[in-house]
Amino acid sequence: MAPVQPGDGRRPRGRRPSVAPTGNASQRPRVTVVGSYGVGLVFSVDIAPGSGETVHGRSFRIDHGGKGSNQAIGAARLGADVRFLTALGEDDFAPRAFRLWDEEGVAALAVRPPGSATMAGAIIVEASGENRIIVVAGALGVLSAEDVRREVSVLDGADVLLVQLEIPLPVAAEGLALARARGLTTILNPAPAPDEPLPPAVLASVDYLTPNLHEGRRLLGRSAGEAEEVAAALARATGRTVVMTVGAQGALIARGEELVAVPAPVAPVVVDSTGAGDAFNAGFAFGLASGLELEEAVALGCRCGAWCVGRPGVIPGLPRLADVDPAWPAI
């Protein structure tokens, strides 16, 4: 493996991504996302209740979530023409989701399994910051490869397919295979990381694998390891180009014997890092769909992640292109 080479985190070498001012979708980068949508039911309490106990909470809110939805919105905010395939339940959360996507300019198609519920998480947050979370997959748990084949038109005309693993692995695999057969660039964000290594048949349809360091270790079956070594080992094990995010340090690109470090700009204040990975993947997909070279697209993703961590909440932290202009911030 060649030594780590530093990338230029200040300004990409090639052309800057652009969106047609006319708003003509045919001239915009085109990204399809197959992935998750869910709601977070967030309860703030002083101390979480014990068995059989009822406590009074301090606040309650319902948040939009799901990595697929977050990344689709992130790409749309940057200026991409985005199509999104997911699954929703037959409940009151579904209309809320469609309103969100309409507002954000995401063309969404949702499979609606009869009698199912939208994916939901109950999140109890204590005053200390500790939390307890229950997640029910609902409709996403029964989304199938057949559903993807039936709705394959979401891939028509796309430049890039982006998928994550909050959907069943066979669904992600089918989307990747269909996209590869159509000549799309494919990105697999392996989040959450599976307990077992990704099957070779799935990896064969992946151009770019985008784990964070924790996910990279899990994919290798390890509990430790330095970032550079993990990225290099994962590229060797999978035969794919690995783009591994490493928090405030930016990202590492590992392919063949090459390892390139792409630094992130310094975030003035870190408020909430929750959505940084989704912001990165949205920016990376948008950059590739815009025709940027790999290192340039990764640098754009790093800028999106750095901008995101300075804002509370995932969706409020997803930037627009003007927010992450390559000249921002001057470092």
Shape: globular
Q: What is the helix content? A: 25-40%
Number of helices: 9
| Named CATH topology | UDP-N-acetylmuramoyl-L-alanine:D-glutamate ligase
CATH architecture: 3-Layer(aba) Sandwich
Mean pLDDT rating: 89
- Rounded to an integer in angstroms, the radius of gyration calculated over CA atoms is 19 Å
The total number of structural domains is 1
CATH superfamily: Ribokinase
Secondary-structure element order, N to C: EEEEHEHEEEHEHEHEHHEEEHH
**What ranges have pLDDT less than 50 throughout 5 or more consecutive residues?**
6-25
Q: Report the major sheet.
A: 10 strands, mixed
Report the oligomer. single chain
Name the strands of the widest sheet in spatial order: 1-14-13-12-11-10-9-2-5-6
Distance between the termini: 29 Å
Beta-strand content: 15-25%
What is the number of E strands? 14
Question: What is the CATH domain class?
Answer: Alpha Beta
Secondary-structure class: alpha/beta
What is the gist of this entry?
The chain is α/β, with parallel strands linked by helices and 331 residues long. It contains nine helices and 14 strands. It has one domain: 3-Layer(aba) Sandwich (UDP-N-acetylmuramoyl-L-alanine:D-glutamate ligase), CATH 3.40.1190.
